[in-house]
From TrEMBL:
PANTHER family: DNA UTILIZATION PROTEIN YHGH. It comes from the Bacteria. This is ComF family protein. InterPro entries: ComF/GntX_DNA_util-trans (IPR051910), PRTase-like (IPR029057).
Amino acid sequence: MRGWWRELAGLVLPADCAGCGAARSLLCGACREVLDGAGAGPVRPARGGAGGALPPVFAAARYEGPVRAVVLAHKERGALPLAGPLGGALAAAVSAARAAGGGGGAGELALVPVPSARRTLRARGHDPARRLALAASRRLRGAGEPARVAPVLRLRRQVADQAGLGARERRENLAGALEVCPDGVRLAAGARIVVVDDVVTTGATLAEAARALGASGLWAQAAAVVAAPPGSFTRS
């Protein structure tokens, strides 16, 4: 019920811009522009956070100002219609990965969202990463790029909230926490895998996702996110 009510409320109730607060606009033109993916490119997460398993990572926008506000509004406050523009940004990051060779060139893409803990999903009332992956796959297909969502990862043990943890603590918190679900290999079969999430900071989550996929014989050829810290972009 909670997720259904959020969907309805987000569609029919007037709202101010989630990025800058402009009146009666879910997302104003200026804030949509910073999520258009024009600056999508490779990023290098914080040093020491990911270990050796991190695939090439691509982001669409810098995690600051309006972008940060929009991401948090979608993830933490249930502003579900924001999945559209955020998914578009994620699609741009996926396309940048493919153009750079990280998506494996031609062929269907399998977007593998990073899973959240069940208690976190209950608290939020929705699954942000999966919702963005679905929006991104629709955008990619609309642009003629074959893509589908493959939710093949799950948590195999409890983890602490990552907020407030340093790079080493995040890596230790997540070590061995993910696994491929029983039918996961079949779900991802024949596709080129890109791990997706909303934000990357240290890269620990993406690295653990890639490790878990590799343990089941699957290869994450790239990772793509909506946003990354400004200093992590490797080109301007």
